[in-house]
Amino acid sequence: MAKFYDGRRDLFKKLEVKSRSLKNPVWIHAASLGEYEQAVPIIDYLNKKQQDVVVSFFSPSGFDIKKDDKKLAAVTYLPIDTSQNMKEFVEILNPKLALIIKYEVWPNMLQVLQNKNIPKVLVSATFSKHQLYFKWYGSLFLKALQKFDAVFVQNEDSFRLAQELQLKGIHISGDTRYDRVFNQLQQDNSIEGISEFIGDQLCLVCGSTWPEDENFIINYINQTHQQLKVIIAPHKVNTAHIEAIENSLKVDYIKWSDGIHTTNLNQAQVVIIDCIGLLTKLYSYADIAYVGGAAGTTGLHNILEPSTFGVPVLFGENHQKFPEAKALLNAGGAFEVKHQTDFNNNLDALISNREKRLEIGKKAAQFVEKQTGATTLICNYIEEQLKQ
């Protein structure tokens, strides 16, 4: 909360300084880092067109990590949604176009944009009957939602619901996250020291884990006789959480911050990643991946990142709010684990059966590739708007 308020102190003065060098910027708003990732393929496209891009965040998690990103002409917090705040914000920024990612529907923001005839586009949207827009008390937000000039939805179910909500300019585009992760294959994903750590053994990469996930992982590590290297990249990297993982392990391990580049890595069975920013590249080293968040109720993290590298994926049972999880299971590229025995049996089967492991990984990669293309559809629309 302190960051939330401190970050908005003198927001308009800071924005005024940043905006002096901007020319007809495209404004992209994302709630936090997860939504920003959905915008990255669009930002890359706009960068190629030498188009200024300004990104605003609602939460500190996105702002803190991306405030110095060279892809962006400016990064700012979104002010609290009052009529005066939004009027001042939009007047200073003076965007050519506003792109809102997924869920961020703010009534005053959209009203000000409409008053100024600035095109408004909702990107990677999903709709379900439990949302506020379908409730009798949600009329304020429904009216705001109806102000969008174009709405790009992820699937046919959302398309039908968007029609029911009487939205304008509805398009089925898919999810830009598939383009984002698929493009990762063209990047340099090497990380110094990781190949040395793995050697000639199989590697399990456990990403964005929470304590409920780590119970599965650490119980397995402590009792298994399999030849396996494990990389644990927890969602929270604070000292208390890292120490809890260390104290639970009964095998040799090393922390990334302790100098993975200089230590004799072959002696360690586990690497604990106690920093952020490495996970996407780490998945490129995986033979098997476990993605955290669904063993508990914190929410499943990105299962598409390991999938695009052709890696079989394991995750917990609480994934009902994540349609990509059901789709990946149906495609045969993943396994749901409900308890420790599930985790152990699935992991053992993947370790011991190379053909099965490779076939499931292939299905995961094909699943991602088939879903790409959202960015092209959205960017074609953006290009038409920028010409006007």
Report what the structure shows.
Helices cover 44% and strands 17% of the residues. It has helices spanning 2-6, 11-19, 33-48, 60-66, 83-93, 107-115, 139-145, 156-164, 176-183, 194-198, 211-223, 239-248, 279-282, 304-307, 323-330, 340-352, 354-370, 374-387, and strands at residues 26-30, 53-57, 74-77, 97-101, 120-125, 150-153, 170-172, 202-209, 228-234, 253-255, 270-272, 288-291, 313-316, 334-337. A seven-stranded parallel beta sheet has the order 3-2-1-4-5-6-7, with helices on both faces. Strands 10-11-9-8-12-13-14 form a seven-stranded parallel beta sheet, with helices on both faces. Helix 11 (211-223) links the parallel strand 8 and strand 9. Helix 6 (107-115) packs parallel to helix 7 (139-145). The longest helix is centred in the last third of the chain and has 17 residues, at 354-370.
How confident is the prediction overall: mean pLDDT? 93
Query: Could you state the oligomeric state of the chains shown?
Result: single chain
Helix content bin: 40-55%
Categorize the overall geometry: globular
Low-confidence stretches: none
Q: Could you tell me the radius of gyration in angstroms? A: 22 Å
Spatial strand sequence of the major β-sheet: 3-2-1-4-5-6-7
- Number of alpha- plus pi-helical segments: 18
Instruction: Characterize the main sheet.
Output: 7 strands, parallel
For the termini, the CA-CA separation is: 41 Å
Beta strand %: 15-25%
Computed structural class = alpha/beta
Q: Give the total of beta strands.
A: 14
